[in-house]
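Problem 3 from the worked examples.
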Amino acid sequence: MRFLVIVNPKSGKQKGLSIVDKIRPIFESNGISLSILETKYQGEAKETLQTMDFNSIRAILVVGGDGTLNEVVNGMLNRRDNLKLPIGIIPAGSGNSFSADLKMFDPIQAANNICAFNTKFVDVLELEMEHEMNFAINLVGWGLVKDVGLRAEKLRWLGPIRYTLSAIIEIFLNQGQRSELIINGKKFFGTYTFIIGCNSIHVGNGMKMAPNAKLNDGLLDLVIVEGNISKSRLLSVMPQLFKGTHVREKEVEYLQVKSFSIYPSYDELLNIDGEMLGTTPIKVTVQPRAIEIFV
């Protein structure tokens, strides 16, 4: 039996290959050989999995973070033959939000869980943008959550604390933005600080953005923060993200929906699974139980 391992050597603390060396004996002792694909550029995992011959491969392992997982999911769901293999996640990134929902925090623990061959089907988010169709496994964010993500990329050398520092900086710069928002077909128009659709509970480095989210309920959890919230209020709400209690605040709207669309006053990048990708306008729709993962 053979698994294909997608390794992003630049994920997190750049320990992807050393993690593979640690987990390889676990798989070999269970009769599983590993073939390694070390990605060299962004998008390589997606390109490879769209066309690769899966005849001799039983499953795909992802050694990386949420961005690498996003590429694997997109490669799988864009195959012309519609063939899908189960995906195993070995956390090795700076933001392992999806694996946090699976309570897989340690690579050795994750490897042992995968070798038990327990799987479940989970939802994905289908993303319709002007010139492309894409998928997200974790989140789609617009507004402040995108701005924080962009700044955090520039501060990657700081490690996990860069998320908190970036949030503080962007809160002081935040002006809000006007947008048309369509939720389950119903139109709204207003000024928003940010809008984020979540498939999983966790985002960033341990934040519980969507505390009621479930990976296989056929719904996405939509968090909307109104644009007239003051900077002092934003600063007081931000620490609550780590407990999930921010959803109780009056400036925060929390909904569980099947689809939403964003048509802002001007087009800009999005935060898609922690990567700054795509562009508005965008329509996001839940695709229930679209992929199989090891749990």
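Problem 4, a separate protein:
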Amino acid sequence: MDTVEERLRDALPRLNRLGYIVRFAVSDDDTWIVDGRATTAELLPDDDRETACTIKITKDNLFRLLDGKLDPMVGYSLGKIKVLGSKGVAMKLVSTLS
């Protein structure tokens, strides 16, 4: 079974040049930082750095989003994707993932 880290790492090429740092809060103990400011995006363990936004999502919904089975706008409007911080950055992020 895939882990959140593996799935996010596989998605990194789609996040190159995103231009922002984003936190994925997938569960209480599974939180990751994607630094998309450089040409090549990086996946980092969570820390206290400031991010443009935080995406709160369950593991199942994250996997569905990454697989293109969850539309980001529908997920957000149904509360399956929650955003803290910049909604514009979040929409740019999830549109590149789906």
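Solution to problem 4. Strands lie at 21-27, 30-35, 42-45, 53-57, 81-85. The chain has one domain: 4-97.
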